[in-house]
Amino acid sequence: MISRIDHLGIAVRSLDASIPYYERALGLRCEHREEVPSQQVRTAFFTVGEVHLELLEPMSAESPIAKFIEKNGEGVHHVAFATDDIVAQLGQASGAGVRLIHEKPFPGAAGKLVAFLHPKSTGGVLTEFCSPAGDAAAATAHA
Ligand code: CO
């Protein structure tokens, strides 16, 4: 079941160039930076109440974020919903006719399991499901 919005993913050309806006203009604090080689991105996290902001900088031209910025420029990239059972959530979406980018969850940033729905099936909003890692069923499904 989806419990809340976990984070908004925001595509940026450069974390170092973008973080000062969030820190100086908004008064937020960058809490965590992490590379996610599987997605070819460097991430930086901020917390706003229960919701996080995930800034995404491409690590290479092959990164999905590089392609997104090339096409759309910098800006909001995806909405991530927290779910307690990512495998069941993917099954529900798939059963409702939604095209999945990932049939099975994989390890994302911040120790979470993640999977994406195709924006062609979601009204143009790239949609992520994420669940805490350590979800044994999901981890097994991924392996
Ligand atoms: Co995300």
Structural commentary:
There is one protein chain. By secondary structure, the protein is of the alpha+beta class. It has one domain (2-142): 2,3-Dihydroxybiphenyl 1,2-Dioxygenase, domain 1. Helices cover 26% and strands 38% of the residues. It is built from 4 helices and 8 strands; from the N terminus they run βαβββαβαβββα. The protein has helices at 15-25, 64-72, 86-95, 136-142; strands at 2-11, 32-36, 41-48, 51-58, 75-83, 106-107, 112-117, 127-132. Strand 3 and strand 4 form a beta hairpin. The chain is globular, with a radius of gyration of 15 Å. Mean pLDDT is 92; it is low at 135-143. Residues 7, 9, 54, 78, 80, 128 line the site of cobalt (II) ion (CO).
Essential attributes:
disordered C terminus, alpha+beta, binds cobalt (II) ion, 38% strand, 2,3-Dihydroxybiphenyl 1,2-Dioxygenase, domain 1
Give a quick precis of the structure:
This protein has 143 residues and is of the alpha+beta class.
